[in-house]
Specification:
- The protein is an alpha/beta fold.
- The protein has a single domain, classed as Ribokinase (UDP-N-acetylmuramoyl-L-alanine:D-glutamate ligase).
- Helices cover about 35% and strands about 25% of the residues.
- It is built from ten helices and 15 strands.
- The longest helix has 15 residues, at about 270-280.
- The two termini are about 35 Å apart.
- Bound molecules: adenosine-5'-triphosphate and magnesium ion.
């Protein structure tokens, strides 16, 4: 079974308004609510692509309950660890008159040591047994960045392979536990190696330097595709040019397709081809990390993989 882990999820509420004027009552024309979080997005796209996963992480309060219900309605199976504090809500205001968007990201709730321990115990006793685990996104307040290192060790000791998609300190620490694969974008990789990476050669050599920790380094390059690096070589999957509508969650969509491909024992060329195609397909829909299966199949046919070395 594939498990995804989201320690710092959020309920996203989007208000659609005609215009914003200070000190005036603003009528909300429509509201949308969305269970958000990087690992949750991966689970959602796995489901959209016909795969199965179970989403884990922390949820609390009414927002947490609502998220569980929403995920169930979307066909995403979850087994969240309950926390006492309320899961955060992010507010997005979309102004219909001019297309402007305002995003208010709230900080997440504090997670107590006892709640961290609840999650660790759940992970150690998972049924069905994990064979792949995707750990994504940020670490909530109250939790040390070392949590990812610990989670990687726990899952690997159970025989699972781990994909770690995060940035900053949690990525640095998580790497020490030697996960199977990471998927930074160019900025996250630059931050990790502490060097501003410009050219593709610089990106490749930075990715190669990480092979002492992981088996595969994939680096997402936005519209320029997805790079795959392992001990045998370097490949670049180049998706066709598209008119992207929403690129948020493209990386999570790529990770979802890649974990399914890895579970099916596909070679690295095919893993990154599927990843790049799902990422690009997700940019064609308005929703965050939403992949239409027909778009995915069409783009897959047009995505080429080049061996660079
Ligand atoms: N503008 C775009 N046009 C075509 N494909 C895109 C575009 N942006 C992203 N993609 C596809 O999606 C993949 C992942 O995108 P990106 O590099 O933006 O990930 P990311 O920064 O991790 O995103 P996020 O964290 O928001 O999910 C790329 O490798 C590419 O295949
Ligand atoms: Mg990302």
């Amino acid at each position: 079974m594939i498990y995804t882990i989201t320690l710092n999820p959020a309920l996203d509420r989007t208000f659609y308004v005609n215009e914003i004027k200070p000190l005036e009552s603003i009528k909300v024309i429509r509201e949308e609510r969305y269970a958000g979080g990087k690992g949750i997005d991966v689970s959602r796209v796995i489901e959209q692509l016909g795969g199965e996963s179970i989403a884990l992480g922390f949820l609390g309060g009414y927002a947490g309950k609502e998220m569980e219900g929403r995920l169930l309605n979307e066909g995403v199976v979850s087994n969240f660890t309950r926390i006492r504090a309320e899961t955060r809500t992010n507010i997005i205001v979309h102004v219909l008159d001019n297309g402007e968007e305002f995003r208010f990201n709230c900080s997440g709730p504090d997670v107590s040591p006892a709640e961290i321990s609840d999650l660790i115990n759940l992970c150690k006793n998972l049924r069905p047994k994990p064979d792949w685990t995707v750990i994504s996104g940020s670490v909530p307040s109250g939790v040390d960045a070392v949590i990812y290192e610990q989670l990687v060790l726990i899952f690997e000791s159970m025989g699972a392979k781990v994909i770690l998609d995060t940035y900053g300190e949690p990525l640095k620490k998580g790497l020490l536990a030697t996960p199977f694969m990471i998927k930074p974008n160019k900025k996250e990789l630059s931050n990790l190696v502490e060097k501003e990476l410009e050219t593709i050669d610089e990106v490749i050599s930075a990715a190669r330097s990480l092979l002492k920790y992981v088996q595969i380094v994939t680096v997402s390059l936005g519209a320029n595709g997805l790079l795959g690096v392992n001990a045998d070589g370097v490949w670049l999957a180049k998706p066709p040019q598209v008119k992207a509508i929403n690129t948020v969650g493209a990386g999570d969509s790529a990770v979802a397709a890649m974990v399914i491909a890895l579970q099916n024992n596909l070679p690295i060329e095919e893993v990154i081809r599927q990843g790049a195609s799902a990422g690009t397909a997700s940019t064609l829909t308005k929703g965050t990390a939403t992949v239409n299966r027909e778009d995915f199949k069409n783009i897959l046919k047009q995505t080429e993989v080049q061996k660079l070395s």
